[in-house]
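Running low. Got one?
___
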Amino acid sequence: MPARQTRQLPLENDWYYVSDPTALTDLRQRGEEIDFLLPFWFGVTAAGGLAEQVEEAALALIRRLNLPVLAIVHNYSSPDYGPLLHRLLTTPELRRSLVASILNMLQRWGFAGVNIDFEFVPPADRPFLTQFMTELYTALHPAGFLVTISVPAEVRDNPQHPFSGAFNYPALAAVSDRVYVLAYDEHYTLPGPIASLGFVRSVLAYAVSVIPREKNWLGVPVYGYDWAEGARAPETLSYEQAVSRARQVGAAIFYDAMVQELTYSYQADGVAHTVWFEDVNTVAVKLDLARQYGVPGVAFWRLGLEDRRVWGLVG
């Protein structure tokens, strides 16, 4: 299918980065076209410190390109990520230690700011997450660092939701320079679109109603999932892997115009598989929505997984 024609993107172009060879190759080839890079390099520890996993080759390239970095601080450095976060967020001295660790890290590495990417935060810890972000903003903002947070997609406020209930959009926006609204993973445990047109529209409509528009960044997927019947979780695919797999198994790729995504099904070793994935056309639709809602930027998950034609939309 030819690339869908769309107007040139008047949006900031940010990319999430996870260290792997494909991502590093992409960074070498496309780094000059990126406005901010968000590398997944710093995990929280039980003592309020940071486990650093900085990739030296990528860092050298970032320095050469003078590419601004929002360093991701995440809770995937431990298999105990939910209870670990609960202790960090609800214990005042640990919160202070984590804030100090982040400030020290930004000063030492010379990054532009931080992106807080906490997942599986217990819903009951909602006020403590806001308190942590308040303390972080108070410490970092006067020092000239950007304070940003990635939040799960919501279409309404539901403080009891097991995955997104801890995230009070307006309260977090008040103590953040940017809120990255991750409008993807619409389906995960069961097969379905990664981010259907209706889903992204609903997420954006809610986000701009409670977060100042100038602080809204839309998270856009560029990947795919392969669900094997009976499996606990899908396999993540790049665009190239999704297309290559369809070719290998002889499956016809179908563009679902209702949800604006690509899908196909196949059988392997007697197991039924369903694949949904993104390409340049599905991404173009999401960028059009971002423009329609007047948000200043987008952030793609993640570098190295995309249809290469996407760069024609953001270059």
Remarks:
- The first strand starts at residue 12 and ends at 17.
- The two ends are 21 Å apart (CA to CA).
